[in-house]
Every structure is written in structure tokens, then in C-alpha cells.
Design brief:
Low-confidence stretches: 93-104
Number of helices: 10
Structural class: mainly alpha
Helix content: over 70%
Number of strands: 0
Largest sheet: none
Distance between the termini: 12 Å
Shape: globular
Radius of gyration: 17 Å
Strand content: under 5%
Order of helices and strands: HHHHHHHHHH
Length: about 200
Amino acid sequence: MLKELFIALTVNLDVFLAAVSYCSSGIRIPKRSAAVVCVFGSAVIGAAMLLSDLLTAHISAKMCSKASVFIIGFIGISVIFRSITRKLMSRVADRDLILKSGSFSLVIRLYLDDTAADTDNSKSLSVREAFALAAASSLDCAATGIGCGLSDSAPLTTSLLTLLTGAAAIILGSLTGKKISSLNRDLSWVGGVMLIILAFLA
């Protein structure tokens, strides 16, 4: 139960930070949009863990353990790298030009700035925009779910806890965001560190 809770808290750290960024920027997160983000993340990690459960029937326990450490550790390192990239890009003078260019514009923008999901600048996250935000973070959830599923973590328990902690993350993030004018530091690297720790706990 504690391991599943740690997994849920880890994957929802980004959700918390995104909520802080949105509310500190004056962008409102309606209940329906919040539900989309929470349910999407919960469904992805649950499905990924159930899929990896099927794989364990064809892979030795030793191989599953090694694969679990590698997958979760790799995702943790990639999250830290993303945080470093965001910090470096925030110092680039023509950052706005970069964010608006290319066929993968929205993907790049969400990679560098969580608040970029508000594409219509309405100061309110629509359901469609919530889907885009959830989809952008689904790769990390899926990979983490597969890695944790190769261990002895319970898929349904993890999925339920992810849903509940996701809702709590949005509420707490929104309250925190209202107390500050802007989020000057990208703390998403903390999630990467937590994933690396999780890799050795799984």
C-alpha cells in the first residue's frame, strides 16, 4: 500500500506543479477539466501496470526486476533532463519564437511550459485543453506504470490512489498558485529524483 501511494504521489507531482503554474498565472482549472486530467492519468498508469502484469508471465522474476529498475530510473533521469532543459530555455531571448514554431508546436510548448495548454488564452483550461495537457504527460505515466507493474505493485490500488492524489494535487496546487504571483523555479526535477528512488524500491 505504501509503495502504491509513493507511486501515485510521484506521478502527480507534475500535476501539482502544473496547477501551481496555472493559478499563479491567473488561469482557472474548472472541475470538468481537473477531472479529465485526473482520470486520464489514473487510467493510463492502471492500464500500463495491467499490461506489464501480462508480460511477467513470460519473463523471469530476475529479468522483471532489472527491467523495472531500468525503466523507472530512465524516466526519472528524463524528467530531471526536462527540468534542466526548461531552465536553459527560459534564458533564451527568442524563447517565444521557439514556442510558436514547428509542426510539433504544442508538444514543444507543453514540454517547456505547462501553462501553454491554454492555447486560446482564455485564462480557463477547457476540457479539450485538459486532454492535451494529460496526453503530454501520459508517456511518463505509461512508462512508470509498466516499470512498476513488473514489480509486485497492485495495478488497481495504484490507479485508484493516482486518481485521488491527482485530485488533491490540483486542489492544493490551485490554492498554492493563488498565494504567489508567479512560479520562478521549475521543481519538476524533484519528481525525477523520486522516480529514481522508486526504481530501487520497486
